[in-house]
Design a protein that fits this description.
The protein is α/β, with parallel strands linked by helices. The strands form 3 sheets. Strands 1, 2, 3, 4, 5, 6, 7, 8 and 9 form a 9-stranded mixed β-sheet that branches. Helix 11 packs across helix 12 and helix 12 runs antiparallel to helix 13. The chain is globular, with a radius of gyration of 29 Å. The chain starts with a strand and ends in a 5-residue tail after the last helix.
């Protein structure tokens, strides 16, 4: 066996599929085995690999064992002369493996090899070549001096900035996203250190390769796309702790004396600084927009109240203080709560949900108003006008945030982008139809031929004219059809056009999804035929609100509903267990099938299940009912199931 490719996957099904397609394309003519170690994904990754890539050696773990341990599981079994540790959020060029193997064959001192990496926007990734994180180099990075002197041999040593990005060079640290090692070196170096759960194991591994007498090389003549999924998590407390703790482990392992103590102190200071900044940033990120909404809405209510009191009652002090300081803020909070329940604070922003949620909130305010006695009915007009102002001010704030290009609040072209599809006639037609089926309505779709000499009215131009076409048609997104375009051509075009500001997406062959940019954790950059899954935060919230509301209603109606129950002893225990969140009114039905084939989002154990939609039917496909319930969830389904089983509470 010449090459063993090992991919550790965790909940990135679409990227994994695209990665595997590029791997098998690059492996043509090379005796290759491919291993996928899945760390208990719940997104269908395991089922996808089994269905579409049966030739893959699949290890499906039942928990998340971490990057190092998962790689070691395959490294213990693989037989290739060369082993490649590859991230699932990558795309490799067709000649990548051949170039790497040829290089290692011709350089007997090469123990490990990395390649040139670009992100999903065509931008070079500095971590393609790195130096060892000594206390000095780490200080220059943490302090930010590395940004001021990006090519200085000493100050920029963390990214070896003094070395040309396009020249072959010996480096210190190989990137974990693409790390090729000879089996000969692996036998001397040993497996990855499992004390590193994630991050740092590539530094440790690279260090041990050099300690074993080999050299690590950077090969820029071949490239990969690395979407860098972890980049969107770098503001999280978990990332900060995991990353810097890995540095502490590394320091204790290889440094000693005063340098080690100083380095560890520096790292711990960085942990506290980054963690504090991350915490503040996350809190502000969560409350800033709601605070803006509340301030604008409450200010509007006050203005309307004062104007109404002045011109209708001829007395600006007509309303009592409690109305101003208690009732009006409560009105605003109820309107905002309605918006929140309808997903008005979800990203990407959805104006329709805001209007619907606040509309329901306004209706509830009017109903509540009508139930009050005369002494507490302050003003229906202020309630109506204030509610209208709250809706308009909230929409206005979203418009302002969109103009300021705040991420998640973009309104222009979010669902009507201008697209260029690059590929053959058959594949671009398929992709165009797929985009329509997903529900995206582009403002413009242009087909671009991959052949520079092709003349067909179906195409508006060819790949050589892509830059001009982007500017002429004011293009937002360029979609590459991987069936018709080799990965190296896609990477080359992305690198050439990185300054155009467009978003790039790739559609793998025979797939019903496309991914692009740094889209691994950004649903806006992932187009897929998807349904209203129960795993979304909005549906989880709505399901929980239904459980609470239904439990309270059943308890309230218990004098009527309790006596006809078939199992009276279960009525109140069930109501209270759902109310406190221990169970849900509807959960999955018990199924004897293999859950790894169709993993479902986790939810609370239910009193009832989708099977109770048709009570008494003994010939139900339980697994299919569970999948259908999870993939297209509606609160109305829970209502119907509870209603049909109202006497079996």
């Amino acid at each position: 066996m010449t090459l063993s490719v090992i991919i550790v996957n965790y909940n990135v099904q679409y990227f994994l599929e695209q990665c595997l397609q590029s791997v098998f394309a690059a492996a043509e003519g090379i005796e290759t085995e491919v291993w996928v170690v899945d760390n208990n994904s719940v997104d269908g990754s395991v089922a996808m690999v089994r269905e579409k890539f049966p030739q893959v050696h699949l290890i499906a773990n039942h928990d998340n064992t971490g990057f190092a341990k998962a790689n070691n599981q395959a490294l213990k079994e693989c037989t290739g002369k060369y082993c490649l540790l590859l991230n699932p959020d990558t795309v490799v060029e067709r000649d990548c493996f051949r170039q790497c193997i040829d290089f290692m064959e011709s350089h007997s001192d090469c123990g490990g090899l990395g390649v040139k990496m670009i992100n999903g926007e065509g931008v070079y990734l500095k971590e393609s070549k790195r130096g060892f994180p000594s206390p000095k180099t780490s200080f220059f990075k943490i302090s930010g001096l590395i940004k001021l002197f990006p090519h200085h041999k000493t100050i920029a040593a963390y990214y070896m900035g003094h070395l040309d990005n396009d020249e072959v060079n010996e480096i210190d640290v190989l990137p974990g996203a693409f790390l090729m090692i000879s089996h000969e070196a692996l036998d001397k170096v040993g497996l990855l250190d499992e004390s590193f759960f994630m991050y740092g194991e590539d530094i440790d591994f690279s260090w041990r390769i050099k300690l074993a007498g080999y050299k690590n090389y950077y090969l820029p003549t071949t490239r990969i796309i690395h979407y860098k999924g972890e980049s969107t998590k770098k503001g999280s407390m978990n990332y900060v702790y995991t990353f810097y703790n890995a540095m502490v482990i590394f320091t204790k392992k290889y440094f000693s004396g005063g340098n080690a103590a100083l380095y560890i102190l520096l790292i711990k200071m960085a942990i506290w600084a980054r963690a504090s900044l991350s915490f503040i940033r996350r809190i502000l990120g969560k409350i800033a927009v709601p605070l803006l909404d509340f301030g604008a809405a409450y200010g509007g209510f006050l203005l309307i109240k004062n104007l109404w009191a002045t011109y209708w009652a001829d007395n600006i002090n007509y309303y009592p203080p409690e109305y101003t300081h208690l009732i009006l803020p409560l009105y605003v909070l109820i309107l905002m709560l309605g918006s929140w329940l309808y997903g008005g604070y979800e990203k990407p922003v959805n104006l329709r949900r805001i209007v619907q949620g606040m509309g329901i909130g306004a209706l509830l305010l009017l109903v509540f108003y009508s139930l009050l006695d005369e002494t507490h009915r302050y003003s229906r007009a202020v309630t109506l006008l204030g509610s209208l102002w709250t809706i308009l001010s909230t929409l206005g704030i979203r418009g302002l945030l969109s103009l300021l290009k705040v991420q998640g609040y973009e309104l222009r072209n979010r669902r009507q982008p201008s697209l260029l599809l690059l590929g053959g006639k058959e594949e671009t037609t398929r992709v165009s139809d797929m985009i329509g089926s997903i529900g995206i309505t582009p403002s413009f779709v242009g087909m671009v031929s991959v052949r520079n000499d092709e003349e067909d009215k179906y195409f508006i131009g060819n790949a050589r004219q892509l830059s001009e076409l982007i500017h002429y048609y004011k293009t937002d997104e360029v979609v590459f059809c991987a069936k018709d375009i080799p990965a190296q051509d896609i990477i080359s075009l992305m690198s050439q056009l990185q300054t155009t500001g467009v978003v790039y997406k790739i559609v793998p062959e025979e797939s019903d999804f496309m991914v692009g940019s740094n889209a691994i954790n950004n649903s806006e950059d992932l187009y897929a035929i998807d349904l209203n899954t129960i795993g979304t935060s909005l549906n989880r919230r709505n399901k929980r609100m239904f459980d609470i509301g239904c439990s309270l209603l059943l308890i309230l109606l218990s004098p009527v509903l309790f006596w006809p129950q078939r199992h009276k002893q279960r009525f109140f225990p069930h109501c209270f267990s759902v109310l406190i969140g221990k169970r849900s009114w509807v959960g999955y039905a018990t199924c004897n099938a293999d859950d790894t084939q169709h993993p479902l989002p986790s939810i609370r154990k239910g009193i009832f299940s989708p099977c109770d939609m048709l009570p008494g039917n003994k010939h139900l496909d339980v697994q299919r009912l569970n999948i259908r319930y999870a993939k297209d969830y509606k609160v109305g389904t829970d209502m119907l199931i509870v209603w049909r089983n109202i006497m079996n509470i």
